[in-house]
């Protein structure tokens, strides 16, 4: 079951909702429907606007010399 994080534009409250099917999410605080969908850090892991050191693992230097794998 997908867990979505929302932020209410009305009362500016952050909350999480277990949303299933076409169920409409509403703010549990004020019942508002103007919700802004937040990207949870552990939901997709691919939505990063900030550059925090890239995502590629450091390759060991000189590991492919001699084997001819890198041309
Ligand atoms: Zn609200």
Structure description:
There is one protein chain. By secondary structure, the protein is mostly beta strands. The chain has a domain of 36 residues. The chain is 0% helix and 21% strand. It contains no helices and three strands. It has a three-stranded antiparallel sheet with strand order 2-1-3, with no helix packed on it. A hairpin with a 5-residue loop joins strand 1 and strand 2. It is rod-shaped. The mean pLDDT is 76. Bound molecules: zinc ion.
Share of residues in helices: under 10%
How many helices? The count is 0
Overall structural class, as computed from helix and strand content, comes to mainly beta
Count the beta strands. 3
- Series of H and E elements: EEE
Tell me the span between the first and last alpha carbons: 47 Å
Strand content: 15-25%
Whole-number mean pLDDT: 76
Give the low-pLDDT segments: none
Ligand identities: zinc ion
Name the shape in a single word.
rod-shaped
Report Rg: 21 Å
Reading side by side through the largest sheet, how are the strands ordered? 2-1-3
Q: Main sheet, how many strands, which sense, barrel?
A: 3 strands, antiparallel
